[in-house]
Amino acid sequence: MLTGRPLLRPLSRVWIGLVLAGAVFGSACGEGGQAGPTSAVIGSTTGLATTTAVVTTTERPSTTPTTATATTDVPATTSTTTSVPATTGTSLPSWWRPVTPEDPLRVWVVGDSLAGPLGNALAARVRATGLAVVTIDFEDGTGLVRDDVFDWPEYAAQRLPQVGPDVVVSLLGANDGQALRLASARLEFGSREWDREYTKRVGEFMDLLIEGSARVYWVGVPSMSDADYDSRVQHINALQWGQAAARGQLGFVDGYSLFRNEAGEYTAQLLDEDGDLVTMRQPDGIHLTGAVADRLALAVLHRVASDWGPAALSGG
After folding, report:
1. For the chain, which residues make up each domain, given as ranges?
2. Tag placement on the chain: N or C end, fewer CB within 10 Å?
3. Which CATH fold topology does 14-70+80-314 show?
4. Which pTM value belongs to this model?
C-alpha cells in the first residue's frame, strides 16, 4: 500500500468541444510499457448538439519486465449485439437498468498506458449515440505487481464513489511480468508462489471493482512482438482469465488473440472494418495505434451491448 504520499488526482483540466479518436494516443502512453494518469470524461446532453470532454495527463516512468515463462493459451471471448441483454431469460438481471440518452451508461476505463487509447476509442465510438458517458483513468508503468509504484486498489477505492460507474473496463497486466517484492520475500515471476500471490491480487481487485459497479469487463493484454515478453503476457492473461471466470458479474474480453494473424502470430498490420490493411501497433511492438485501439474498443462495446441491450452502444 502507498504510504506517505497522496493518491493521484486529476491535474490541470482542459475543456474542449470534442475529443477525436487517437488525438491523445501518442502523448498519453509512456515509453516502453504502460500508462500515465489521464482522466477524461466524455458526455452528451439530451436535446443539445454539444459534447464536452475533460482531459488531464501526466506520465510516470514505465516498468519493463525482464523475465519470461511458458506460454498459456486463453480461451477466446465471443459476443453478439442484441436489442435486449443476452443474459436475460424470463427476468432481467439485478444489475441491469435501461440505458437511454436521458440516463446514459456510466463507463469507467482504468489501467496502464494501453488503457488510455482504449478509453479514448470507446469515447469516440459512443459519442454520437448519447448512450454512454466515459471516464478514463490510466497510469503509466503500472499494474498489480508494483504497488510501491502505484497502488491501483487504493486509488480505485477512492475513485469508484466519485465516478459511480455502471460499467468498469479494466486493462492491466502488461507491466506485471516481473518479480513480486513482499516484506518477507521476493517472488520470481512464474513461480508457484508468484502465481498464488498475483492471482490473489487480481481477484481482490476484481472484487473491488465489482462491488463499486454493476458490471466489470476485464480486457486481456494484447499480444506483443517480443517472444519473451509475449510469453509473460500469455501467462498473465491466463491467470486473469481464471479469476474472471469465477466471477459472475465480470466478463473477460480477449484482447490477445484479437491482434494475431491467421497463423496465430503477432502482426503489426491487420485488416480493418473496411478490409484495408492498416498498422495496428506502434514501432515498439507494445503500444496501440488508433486503429488497434478502435478494434479493441469495438470488441468491448459489442460485449457491453450484448449485456445491456441497446445495440447502438456498439458505436456502429
Report:
1. 14-70+80-314
2. N
3. Rossmann fold (3.40.50)
4. 0.72
